[in-house]
Amino acid sequence: MRRDVFQAIADPIRRDIIELLSEESLNVNQVANKFKINRPAISKHLKILNECGIIRFNQVGGERLCLIKPQELIPAFLWIKQYNKLWEDRIDSFENYINKIKLKNDNNE
Fold first, then answer.
1. Could you give the CA distance from residue 16 to residue 97 in angstroms, rounded to a whole number?
2. Domains of the chain, with CATH numbers?
3. Measured between alpha carbons, how far is 38 from 81 in angstroms, rounded to an integer?
């Protein structure tokens, strides 16, 4: 089964791992030590991130480092970005509505 970036970011633990690895490359144990779930569960999340192309493993001596491939997150960013204008317009509309209500209440006092 081919996984994609959206499967990678669907889980909050995987999003936290992505954020963690965006700051520095870590070995599997170092990643696991940052979470309150067991190492096999972290290994499963790392495997999914690897299958999605978000991270890769690099063997350095006796260590297996997890390296982020941030360019693989671009499709998710572009998909989310297309909705940015929609949400900005809705938030602006809501803000205008609130301001009208406030103005009406201020005038009635």
1. 36
2. 5-108 (1.10.10.10)
3. 34
